[in-house]
Predict the structure of Glutamine-dependent NAD(+) synthetase.
Amino acid sequence: MTDSTHPFYAMHEHGFVRVATSTPHVKTADVAANRDAILAEARRAHAAHVDLLVFPELSLSSYAIDDLHLQGTMIEAVEATIADIVRASADLSPVLLVGAALERKGRLFNCAVVIAGGRLLGVVPKSYLPNYREFYEKRWFASGKAMRDATITVNGQDVPFGVDLVFASQLLRNFRFFVEICEDVWAPSPPSTLGAMAGATILANLSASNIVIGKSDERHMLCRAQSARAMAAYVYCAAGHGESTTDLAWDGQGIVYELGDLLAESERFSLEPELCVADVDCDRIVMDRLRSPTFNDAADVGCRPEETFRTVPFRHAPAGGDIGLVRPVSRFPFVPSRADKLDADCYEAFNIQVDGLMRRIESTRAKSLVIGISGGLDSTHALIVAARACDRLGLPRDFIRGYTMPGFGTSDGTKSNAWKLMDAVGIAAQEIDIRPAATTMLQDIGHAFADGEPVYDVTFENVQAGLRTDYLFRLASQHNGFVVGTGDLSELALGWCTYGVGDQMSHYAVNAGVPKTLIQYLIRWCATTDQFSASTEEILLAILATEISPELVPAGADGAIQSTEAKIGPYELNDFFLHHVMRFGQKPSKVAFLAWHAWRDASAGTWPAGFPEEKKNAYELAVIRSWLEKFVGRFFAFSQFKRSAIPNGPKVSTAGALSPRGDWRAPSDASAAVWLAELEQRVP
């Protein structure tokens, strides 16, 4: 049993904010009915622990009422009804964004009314009024694009009014939002761009937006682009069933994007009210902005809006304790997950490596490629990348010289797989038994193993790893080629490689930007999509089914071989940790929280397409915490000196790479104390 009251289990403690769009029941021009429908949805959102609730444009009156917007009775009814919603909000947790037409100094504005905790916080007018094709908004409304440092009187209360408002929670750090309305996001320069640069992490759009063929895709494109470009979350809510269909139709689309990633989407054309809920990671947004000088440079060009925009503080009632996490959390953040783009994404990842290796062959004018083939995942992937590079350059496959070098722990199975793979791919293959040379070296240095003692320490392992690399470099010199490195991104993160004269070194590290989980997936993709011959595909699948092992220590009396993952942890967890630490700088407690939600239940969530059922694992928090502690120690305090001296290799994933010339720069003698302390203090 978990203690759900522990702060660790509360999503708000990790920087998440629960947002929702709502398409309530609508009655054309019936303000009282629309008020009641809005409040019904607000109560439903309260029960769902929502923090920010976005309604459609002009939701109090309904949007498609044409000249009825200019009727005095309608204008007064809308304003009066706002007071009812303000009073009701005192008992509700969400901040409410309600659409309403409001009069100010003889002009009518299409507005978003911001309400929380029994208070009217402010009013934001629409900047860009569509007046083309089916739209005639300039007939009724005035543009608010020049409204700054202004106020508006609503039911006798003066509140901030303008397009220069950022609403900031006094309880949840980084919960800051900006509001725009419908057409604003269709503009060449949406107001929300300045809102984001003024500090808003969430951009909300109250929209009516009638539906025509293809418009849903257009909304997705705009919202995704704005969330990515403005480095924010974008919450979009369109009007739905109940709006007038005199000349138009409505689909009630709700969309939530974060940094270009789709978090949630409502059912379209629903006859019932839709509540589209997602948890936005405001801390992730802020951390991403910290990594982007371009974002801050744009703020400078934009005259630093954070200094000219007004901040409207508010208090609301965020739920405490474990309220779950409503957002997709990928178990395999490095692995392509878009089902409709799966083949294209795998093709792209694979050919990034192929193209990098091709360019290196061309620039060095090499006469051969030299690769050590172990029968394991990394060397297998490096070999098929090299084979494809040769194919594209018009070189024969025997341009590649593959060497299998059995040592003291090499199993018959992996040795057999190595030979089958080299034969199937059609390269120049050779075997060099390193045991005689290793025995001589162990004798020369006075190691106990040379005297017959079963001492299988790091020195014993490194003698073998070093000899293999030494042979490969000399062979590359002999055959006028270069050594293709096989080590991957996961091993670099953990320091699971032999430094210098070992598998850490090569002439070109083709796998250095590819983590273990992606290598597994790309091999499976190659084996199931006719990328190579049937015999090659068969051996690729056999290698995928083999235990991951360095095979440097002889098998035990029970036949058990050396297990990498038993020593350093499951690669699927380590790659998860690596992504969130390297790409976003997330705290260990946040990483543990995300991992717990991603991995605690194998039956929940989605798995990569074609993922084997027998490999669908689940992990308890205690297991996640234990391996995360080891990861933090290895990543921050142990392995950087190995990464600081790695050879060239192509970056493959947007999550980053660990080259000291690219995404990651760190001192080799750092301490992991602050990360370990944070983990100890905040994760039960």
About this structure: The domain at 11-314 is CATH 3.60.110.10 (Nitrilase/N-carbamoyl-D-aminoacid amidohydrolase). The chain has a mean pLDDT of 95. The chain is about 35% helix and 15% strand. The first strand starts at residue 16 and ends at 23.
